[in-house]
Amino acid sequence: MLGSVVAVALAAATLAAGQPSAAQAIKAQQSTLVASFRQQAVTVDAPFKRFDGSIQYDPAHAGDTRATLHVDTTSLDIGDEDSDAEVRGVAWLDSAHYPMATFESTRITPRDAQHFDATGNLTIKGRTRPVTMIVSVAPAARGYVYDGSFELSRRDFGIGDPQWDSVLDDRVLVRFHLL
Amino acid sequence: MDAAALASRGYTRTAVALHWTVAGLVITLLAMGWIMTDMSASPTKLQIVTWHKWGGITVLALFFARTLWRLTHPVPPSLPGPLWQQRAANLVHASLYVLLLVQPLSGWLYSSAAGRQVVYLNLIPLPNLIGRNPAAGALFKELHDTCGTLLAALVAVHILAALKHHFVDRDDTLRRMLGWRAP
Questions:
Q1: Interface contact flag, B115 A40, Cβ < 8 Å
Q2: Residues 6 or more apart whose Cβ sits within 8 Å of residue B94
Q3: Which of residues 71-100 of A touch B (CB under 8 A)?
Q4: pLDDT tens column, B93-116
Q5: Is the pLDDT of residue B182 over 70?
Q6: Distance (Å) from the alpha carbon of B40 to chain A's nearest alpha carbon
Q7: What 3 state SS string does B17-65 have?
């Protein structure tokens, strides 16, 4: 009882300060997470439809930012059912064994009031690799909106059947707009 | 020049060249379409689909070239024959022209709706005609499939009729499109 009173009081205090330090739950409906890849000369944007996570950000202590994202690997929408089914297969995302891809921030370094460098561990298909990206942050109606992108190598995560390498780039650009 | 002389004068060399280029492309594209739709996702399928798109865009460009040429260089009147055959021929020719426009366009629209920009010959990025839209994509796929079947049927009728003129009626209908009589 006392604990919840304290929590409410703290929440009220942070709201009053206009800087919610509580984790902001990512609203997937308003956010976008897109994997962009090149097939020969054609760039294909494939959005993930289902993901969730939270970002704890306080502009006064930007270095203490924490971000976690869980992505449903079955929800990648390439544009046709045939390709969607292919990419869920063992050679690609192997969604049956690895239904989730995750990102967990490890270090946040503020650049200026609107940007920070985020380093974290990206885990896809059971393999964890560090990634670094520049994130821009701006106030939104409730909380903040975060935008950024980073590149990953399919090979690093064992994504893809080698027979596709002649027509499909190894690099995949991941773009996000999270709020 | 009387009607018979006009009719046997034949087509211009350009019209003949355009006809056979489009004929070769259309038959190849129909065969590719037939084969690739039954293939599961693979690099080979992607390659065939890509070539199919380039071929379709070429047919679309040639449609405009041909139409422009035809409007400025009237075709010879058809050779004498029963009225129903003349009407049927006109209907088939008009339908072929319509499909040679609709078929590449519906394919392009289908590709756009599926979020696949067409990059002609891997060199020229063509604009997406509509934004990514799965429902519209399914609709254009249906249209492209149906028009493809219709086009294949009309091409078959067109070829059979040409062969009938050549081997049964023994007239100059096919010969003048082969360019043998072209000036």
A1: no
A2: none
A3: 78-80, 82-83, 85-86
A4: 999 999 999 999 999 999 999 999
A5: no
A6: 7
A7: HHHHHHHHHHHHHHHHHHHHCCCCCCHHHHHHHHHHHHHHHHHHHHHHH
% of chain A with per-residue pLDDT over 90 = 71
Tell me how far apart the alpha carbons of residues A48 and A88 are, in angstroms, rounded to a whole number: 12
A contacts of B40 (beta carbons < 8 Å): 82, 86
Higher-pLDDT residue of B146, A22: B146
Inter-chain residue contact A43 with B117, CB threshold 8 Å: yes
**Total length of chain A:** 179
Return left, alpha or beta for A79; rule: phi > 0 is left, psi -120 to 50 is alpha, else beta: left
Residue A75 has pLDDT above 90, yes or no: yes
- Hey, what long-range contacts does B27-31 have (CB within 8 A, 24 or more apart)? B27/B155, B28/B55, B29/B55, B29/B56, B29/B59, B30/B148, B30/B151, B30/B152, B30/B155
CB-CB under 8 Å, B125 with A41: yes
Residues 55-74 of A with CB under 8 A from B: none
Helix, strand, coil content of chain A in percent (nearest 5):
20, 50, 30
Distance from CA of B131 to the nearest CA of A (A): 12
Inform me whether the pLDDT recorded for A143 exceeds 60.
yes
> Which residues from B are below 8 Å from A79, CB to CB?
114-116, 132, 134, 137
Residue of B44, B51, B117 to mutate for A, most A C-beta atoms under 10 A: B117
Average pLDDT score over residue span B8-18: 86
Q: What rounded mean pLDDT belongs to chain B?
A: 92
Burial of residue B176, with CB atoms counted within 10 A of its CB: 0-12 exposed, 13-18 middle, 19 or more buried: buried
**Chain B contact for A43 (CB, 8 A cutoff):** yes
Q: Which residue has the higher pLDDT, B182 or A89?
A: A89
CA distances from B21 to B28, B63, B78, B167 (A): 11, 11, 22, 24
Q: Is the pTM of this model over 0.90?
A: no
Assign B2 a pLDDT band (cuts: 50, 70, 90). Answer: low
